[in-house]
Amino acid sequence: MYSKQRIMFSALFFMAAIVHGQQQRNWLVEEASNITIYGTSNVADFACAIASKTEKDTLDMSFERSSEKLVFQKAELRIDAASFDCQNRLITQDFRNTLQVDKYPEIILHFISLDTPTESNLKNHKLDGEVKITIVGVSKSYEIRFEVERKNEKAFYLAGKKKVRFKDFGLKPPQKLAGLVKVEDELEIDFTLLLSSLN
Question: What is the 3-state secondary structure (H, E, C) of the chain?
Fold first, then answer.
């Protein structure tokens, strides 16, 4: 998706200051960020998306020498579950009902850590990290591979995707028409965050 040189430069440019002396760096999650959940059924695939964010979330990042990782503080991305649009009224309603949006109005992405960027771990255009995902009040931690692309001197894109299952969160896939249309258990959460430096 991105060239090796651009990814390496981007990650090193924005994160080297944290590793080499700066205690913490703070990032604003811009409205241009987007989150999409992909699923499949025995009839067709579907995608439920939030086109842009309206909340002013921040991700605070520092270097932890004991683990040799970049770790996040105050790094919860809260997503309005009722804002997902699946481009089909019935699918959207079923999806929101499955997520129990009246009882659990938010999906939370809690960013935990990123591997320290080096030429070695960026040679495959990826940067490994850990994210905790909370759906219907149930939290699961996942290893995720990120792509990093610089936008300008103060901002960069952090993109990642992860396959999860409804049953990971104690949920059953939605069914329509007396079970004639069945949604598969597996989902893919795909997000691209535009992060702007606050310091």
Answer: CCCHHHHHHHHHHHHHHHHCCCCCEEEEECCCCEEEEEEEECCCEEEEEECCCCCCCEEEEEEECCCCEEEEECCEEEEEHHHCECCCHHHHHHHHHHCCCCCCCEEEEEEEEEECCCCCCCCCCCEEEEEEEEECCEEEEEEEEEEEEEEECCEEEEEEEEEEEHHHHCCCCCEECCCCEEEEEEEEEEEEEEEEECC
**14 or 60, which is more confident?**
60
Strands 181-197, 106-115: pairing is unpaired
For 43-79, b where at least 16 C-beta lie within 10 A, e where not — what string? eeebebbbeebeeebbbbbbbeeeeebbbbeebebeb
Residue that has been written with the tokens 């019935």 in this structure: 90
What tokens were used for 168?
A: 């990971």
Q: Using CA atoms, how far apart are residues 10 and 33, in angstroms rounded to an integer? A: 18
Q: What is the pLDDT of residue 88?
A: 84
pLDDT one-digit tens code per residue, 132-141: 999 999 999 9
Global pTM?
0.81
pLDDT at residue 8, as a whole number? 42
What pLDDT, on the 0 to 100 scale, is given for residue 42? 86
What is the average per-residue pLDDT within 2-27?
54
Torsion angle (degrees, nearest 10) of CA 23, 29, 34, 36: 50
